[in-house]
């Protein structure tokens, strides 16, 4: 029997579940597949509707992790198997090597010695990074990573030689860790729906057609353009930007459900753009603006009051090439009537959220047809592994999951 | 404690290139008189930690100062029980943020500045080490483990059950004579899980049965809170029959307006007291303990919502007041009694649901609407259709709000030929032929305006949180019975924090369900579970003797030197969490388990009598005075920065990591919150010849980002007073300034600092320098 709790996923929901359970007096393990905690929200520029930076809350939660004697976390780790029963789960983890030691918090000398440049997936490939890197400027753990691909190469040796002694360890091997836990919280979160799956939107054909998550990186001071929203094709500031709502969501052929966050995310991104330059025109093509509740309705009202933000009720059916790298959004205006062809200098697909379970399910966990976890005794989903939610609802759901997990381990004990 | 300090200087990551480490060692062993001083080029390695440990064991070092990495890093290997460990980030604050190009013609002068900067940080932190003490946890003798749940609806019932499942006793207080709240009146519920095609049977009956069968849960119906006094771990709740008056009803302080006479002048303390007594006649003083009060450890507020009832003259174009025009709640009640009919007796064969009241001018939903309002309209349409196979339902919306998998419910309804859904602006509801109501709808997605005749029109109005109109918790606190500033959130008991939705401004009390936000039953259940966790967690924190969020890791608590208290009331009034009560004379009564350790009281106190073991007036004052201020060198002015450690300080760290340089003339002191900055520190700075002071803190205003709610705003107000003082001394008030900075504005923060420095340099030296 174990009174420990395993949290799979170290994003916003997983972190919350872990710190809340630990502070209620229980031992917690976090398993995160990326090299940093914070998950999707670490990539966001601001939260709606306060327009406050996600790193502010993450900073506090990281501090809670650092100072808690009851939390152990594994980054770059995957769950290989879950067996046993509530109160008595056996979990096997594979922890991949980072090839650095904890004191390796600054990899500048190594970066200079590294010859490899690979697309930086944290920025959705809009920038490159070296074979030794800090996952992002606010990363926690604040420890550099060496790409496994160079570990056994001469480049790896050069990086090691350039770094202070003891900071790089190229002999690290993947480790298998066996845990005994009483309950498992599944906080595996979501990923942006692959825009290439929507043939009619021709995502791969246009440099200046990006996704909403790419927009977050463009708008972020730590992003590839240091916070300037620029067109990928020519790094020029777009004079007009068009948003395609429900890019995949509410669509039988893709994500049949509503992804909940994309309307609010677009309203927020419209504000990023308008704050950057008061001359930029914004066009938003939507089915419904889902900004429910007082706070979100007020936020929508604020954006609506801006006469440079245009709302067109109609789903974009097609994206075509315009002049000079522009794109043309084609839609049926269901109120004004008629077909609309709006040329914009940059297009943004408000792609929906797909639960990670739809793509890489955890062993021993059951999912519904959309990939959301079906809860059972001892296996407790929260956040976007459970249903599409925003950050505030993720916090609620994760805090509740912490108590459900505590109850399971108490019953078993 | 008698201290033996060990200083460990990290020389890696460019520190040894930026500064002359030998000179730092010389300063430390010489002027600063630090007995153990060592340098290490890989200090944060296991070997580095072993070196420190050996000094603790063999040399008797009991105060460790690590000069190197920012305190924001992990230092698990440097956690030595019983040893004070302090970190000063000279890597970020000195080396990385002050790169010197050796090619520059004035490189030598620049290097001198950087060296002086590093030396000052050692002086400041040596001073701090000399004064700081290890915190000792505050332990209550007895921590009551019972949870009080206010409200017996779905949220409250769930909270009690969840608490009981986690081993805690719970007491539910319900104002009505029956449990169940609004949910007890539902005939059907919104579907709960895939495939969302069937309305669910109400679950509230099951919750009530489980509560009644649970021997850890006690239920008190027909009961409400007269007052709640006490503290987390030992709240004292006076209960009373609902709707009655009691001598234990919580007194209500005078509002700011009530403190003024008819001419707008502030009343004398005596007159205020008189007015207060009149206002609270028949009520016991707030500090008086009710001997028959029940004791609880923590509280879940689940008092829910009331249906929005439009005023008589509201929504005239929607026919409010006409026979057959009802709210969604009125329809719900009719449905639950089995009879949907009009007051005039007319049978209802067709219903129009109106989701957005704004006609063509505004596409917003009704006040206090949410996704629930859309979902309830769908539910009611389906209920109506299920019992009226010939009936027709029209749903007119501006934006159908069915988030997540609720989309399936919406889609399912679209297949029912008897339910007609369209986006549109309802412009008019008027009397139609033969007693019918005619609904005019424009801008529909049908491409034309339509008019339909129906028997009933349902306004999909919202859910008003109970805390909009009442205190509900009725706290017997110095700052009054209610949560503060809820008008910022339309009366919802909202935390304002996206990341920390259960935070309230009253420690140990956590809100859940409709009182926080419009929620479905499913969501309310989850929310109740979350709030219950927070309540239980608060008891754990009290038991272990540390703070709750956001300084969970903090075992310290404020200490008051009462002999010098002048009863000025600033601390009791300004504490963002209402932690302090007071006695008749106005002497503050600290309640450590209510305290969040932000230090706002310390910042407020003009007598400088409030402090913490490791953070107080003397410690920071000593750090300021430790700065070496050249008397007669106009190139070496000195500015101090108080940087909020939650947001501004991390922004500085990031700026340094990016190599964004700022002026070497500033010295940075991290503070818990700008609210803790005492004006005496500004005076200390000015009288030690420092030329300017900049406060870097969180954004304030309606969307405040301050984790302690009011800190930066209060600091701003205090600095205005400082400015006046400076003015009266013949100094430029601009020498003290506050700037708001978010954690991600690392690209802006060096500019803010440099602009400030430039401004001060323009003014020239502090005229009191060298006095």
Describe this protein's structure:
With 413 residues, chain A is α/β, with parallel strands linked by helices. Chain A is 25% helix and 25% strand. The longest helix of chain A has 22 residues, at 391-412. Chain A is globular and about 65 Å long. Chain B has five domains: 1-134, Rossmann fold, CATH 3.40.50; 147-251 and 286-305 and 466-544, FAD/NAD(P)-binding domain (3-Layer(bba) Sandwich); 340-457, FAD/NAD(P)-binding domain; 559-610, 2-Layer Sandwich (Alpha-Beta Plaits), CATH 3.30.70; 615-771, Rossmann fold (3-Layer(aba) Sandwich). In chain B, helix 5 (107-131) packs antiparallel against helix 15. The chains are: A alpha/beta (413), B alpha/beta (771). Chains A and B meet through helix 1, helix 2, helix 8 and helix 9 of A and helix 10, helix 11, helix 12 and helix 16 of B.
Q: What do the pLDDT scores of chain B average to?
A: 96
Residue share in helix of chain A: 10-25%
How large a portion of the residues of chain B is in β-strands, by DSSP E?
Answer: 15-25%
Q: Categorize the overall geometry of chain A.
A: globular
Oligomer: heterodimer
Roughly how many Å is the radius of gyration of chain A? Answer: 22 Å
**Discrete helix count of chain B:** 19
- CATH class category of the largest domain in chain B: Alpha Beta
Q: Order of strands across the biggest sheet of chain B?
A: 7-6-5-11-22
- Second rung of CATH, namely the architecture of the largest domain in chain B: 3-Layer(bba) Sandwich
CATH homologous superfamily assignment of the largest domain in chain A: FAD/NAD(P)-binding domain
Global shape of chain B: elongated
Strand order in the largest sheet of chain A: 3-2-1-11-22
Q: Any idea what the CATH architecture of the largest domain in chain A is?
A: 3-Layer(bba) Sandwich
How many E strands of chain B? 30
Largest sheet of chain B: 5 strands, parallel
Q: What is the CATH superfamily of the largest domain in chain B?
A: FAD/NAD(P)-binding domain
């Amino acid at each position: 029997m174990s009174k420990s709790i395993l949290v799979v996923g170290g994003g916003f929901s997983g972190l919350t579940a872990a710190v809340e359970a630990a502070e209620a007096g229980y031992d917690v393990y976090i398993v995160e597949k990326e090299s940093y905690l914070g998950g999707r929200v670490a990539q966001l520029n601001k939260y709606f509707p306060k327009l406050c930076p996600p790193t502010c809350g993450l900073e506090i939660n990281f501090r809670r992790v650092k100072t808690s004697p009851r939390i152990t976390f594994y980054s770059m780790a995957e769950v290989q198997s879950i067996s046993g029963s509530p109160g008595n789960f056996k979990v096997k983890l594979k922890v991949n090597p980072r090839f650095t030691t904890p004191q390796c918090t600054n990899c500048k000398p190594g970066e200079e010695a590294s010859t490899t440049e690979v697309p930086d997936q944290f920025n959705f490939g809009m920038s490159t990074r070296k074979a030794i890197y800090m996952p992002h400027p606010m990363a926690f753990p604040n420890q550099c990573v060496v790409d496994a691909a160079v570990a056994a190469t001469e480049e790896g040796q050069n990086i090691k030689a350039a770094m202070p002694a003891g900071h790089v360890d190229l002999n690290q091997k993947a480790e298998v860790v066996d845990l005994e836990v009483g309950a498992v919280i599944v906080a595996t979160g979501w990923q942006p729906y692959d825009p290439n799956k929507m043939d009619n939107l021709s995502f791969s054909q246009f440099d200046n057609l990006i996704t909403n998550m790419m927009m977050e990186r463009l708008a972020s001071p730590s992003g590839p353009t240091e916070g300037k929203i620029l067109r990928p094709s020519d790094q020029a500031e777009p004079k007009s930007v068009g948003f395609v709502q429900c890019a995949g969501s509410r669509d039988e052929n893709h994500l049949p459900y509503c992804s909940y966050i994309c309307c609010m995310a677009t309203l927020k991104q419209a504000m990023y753009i308008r704050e950057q330059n008061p001359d930029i025109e914004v066009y938003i093509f939507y089915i419904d603006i889902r900004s429910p509740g007082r706070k979100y309705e007020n936020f929508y009202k604020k954006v609506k009051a801006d006469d440079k933000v245009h709302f067109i009720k109609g789903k974009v059916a097609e994206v075509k090439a315009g002049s000079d790298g522009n794109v043309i959004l084609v839609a049926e205006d269901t109120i004004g009537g008629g077909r609309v062809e709006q040329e914009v200098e940059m297009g943004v697909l408000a792609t929906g959220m797909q639960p990670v379970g739809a793509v890489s399910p955890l062993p021993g966990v059951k999912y519904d047809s959309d990939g959301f976890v079906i809860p059972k005794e001892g296996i407790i989903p929260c956040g976007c592994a459970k249903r599409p939610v925003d950050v505030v609802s993720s916090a609620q759901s994760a805090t509740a999951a912490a108590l459900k997990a505590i109850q399971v381990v108490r019953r078993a004990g | 404690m008698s201290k033996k300090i060990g200083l460990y200087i990290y020389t890696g990551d460019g520190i040894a290139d930026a500064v002359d480490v030998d000179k730092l060692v010389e300063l430390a062993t010489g002027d600063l008189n630090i007995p153990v001083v060592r340098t290490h080029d890989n200090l944060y390695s296991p070997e580095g930690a072993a070196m420190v440990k050996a000094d603790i064991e063999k040399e008797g070092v009991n105060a460790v100062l690590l000069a190197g990495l920012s305190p924001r890093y992990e230092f698990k290997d440097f956690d030595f029980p019983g040893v004070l460990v302090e970190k000063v980030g000279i890597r970020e604050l000195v080396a990385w943020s002050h790169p010197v190009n050796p090619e520059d013609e004035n490189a030598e002068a620049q290097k001198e500045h950087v060296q002086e900067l590093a030396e000052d940080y050692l002086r400041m932190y040596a001073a701090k080490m000399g004064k700081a003490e290890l915190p000792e946890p505050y332990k209550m003798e007895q921590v009551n483990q019972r949870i009080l749940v206010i409200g017996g609806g779905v949220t409250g019932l769930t909270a009690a059950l969840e608490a009981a499942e986690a081993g805690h006793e719970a007491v539910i207080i319900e104002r009505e004579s029956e449990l169940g709240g609004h949910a007890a009146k539902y005939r059907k519920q919104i579907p709960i899980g895939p495939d969302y095609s069937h309305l669910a049977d109400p679950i509230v009956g099951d919750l009530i049965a489980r509560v009644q069968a649970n021997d850890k849960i006690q239920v008190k119906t027909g009961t409400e809170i007269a007052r709640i006094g006490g503290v987390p771990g030992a709240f004292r709740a006076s209960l009373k029959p609902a709707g009655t008056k009691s001598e234990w009803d919580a007194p209500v302080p005078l509002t700011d307006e009530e403190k003024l006479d008819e001419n707008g002048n502030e009343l004398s303390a005596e007159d205020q007291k008189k007015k207060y007594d009149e206002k609270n006649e028949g009520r016991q003083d707030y500090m008086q303990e009710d001997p028959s009060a029940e004791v609880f450890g923590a509280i879940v507020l689940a008092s829910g919502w009331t249906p929005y009832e439009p005023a008589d003259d509201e929504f005239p174009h929607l026919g409010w007041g006409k026979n057959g025009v009802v709210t969604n709640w009125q329809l719900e009640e009719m449905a639950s009694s089995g009879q949907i009919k009009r007051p005039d007796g007319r049978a209802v064969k067709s219903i129009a649901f109106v989701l957005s009241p704004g006609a063509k001018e505004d596409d917003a939903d009704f006040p206090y609407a949410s996704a629930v309002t859309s979902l309830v309209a769908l539910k009611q349409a389906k209920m109506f259709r299920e019992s009226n196979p010939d009936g027709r339902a029209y749903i007119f919306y501006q934006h159908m709000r069915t988030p997540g998998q609720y989309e399936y419910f919406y889609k399912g309804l679209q297949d029912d030929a008897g339910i007609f859904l369209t986006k549109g602006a309802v412009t008019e509801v008027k009397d139609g032929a033969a007693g019918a109501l005619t609904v005019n709808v424009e801008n529909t997605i049908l491409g034309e305006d339509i008019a339909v005749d129906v028997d009933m029109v349902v306004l999909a109005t919202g859910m008003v949180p109970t805390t909009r109109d009442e205190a509900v918790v009725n706290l017997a606190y110095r700052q009054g019975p209610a949560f503060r500033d809820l008008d910022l959130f339309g009366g919802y008991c909202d935390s304002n924090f996206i990341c920390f939705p259960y935070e309230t401004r009253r420690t140990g009390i956590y809100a859940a369900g409709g009182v926080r936000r419009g929620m479905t039953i499913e969501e309310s259940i989850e929310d109740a579970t979350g709030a219950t966790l927070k309540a239980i967690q608060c008891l754990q924190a009290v038991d272990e003797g540390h703070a709750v969020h956001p300084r969970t890791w903090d075992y310290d608590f404020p200490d008051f030197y009462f002999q010098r208290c002048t009863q000025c009331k600033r601390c009791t009034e300004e504490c963002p969490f209402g932690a302090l009560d007071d006695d008749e004379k106005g002497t503050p009564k600290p309640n450590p388990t209510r305290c969040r350790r932000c230090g706002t009281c310390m910042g407020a106190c003009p007598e400088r009598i409030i402090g913490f073991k490791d953070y107080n007036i003397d410690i920071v004052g000593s750090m300021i005075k430790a700065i070496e201020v050249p008397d007669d060198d106009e190139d070496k002015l000195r500015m101090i920065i108080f940087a909020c450690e939650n947001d501004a300080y991390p922004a500085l760290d990031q700026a340094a990591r990016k190599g964004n340089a700022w002026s070497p003339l500033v010295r940075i002191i991290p503070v818990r919150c700008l609210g803790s900055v005492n004006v005496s520190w500004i005076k200390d700075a000015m009288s030690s010849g420092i030329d300017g002071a900049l406060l870097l803190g969180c954004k304030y205003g309606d969307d405040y980002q301050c984790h302690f709610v009011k800190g930066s705003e209060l600091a701003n107000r205090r600095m205005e007073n400082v400015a006046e003082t400076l003015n009266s001394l013949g100094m430029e008030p601009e020498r003290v300034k506050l700037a708001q900075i978010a954690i991600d504005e690392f690209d802006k923060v060096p500019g803010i600092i440099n602009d400030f420095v430039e401004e001060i340099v323009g003014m020239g030296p502090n005229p009191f320098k060298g006095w």
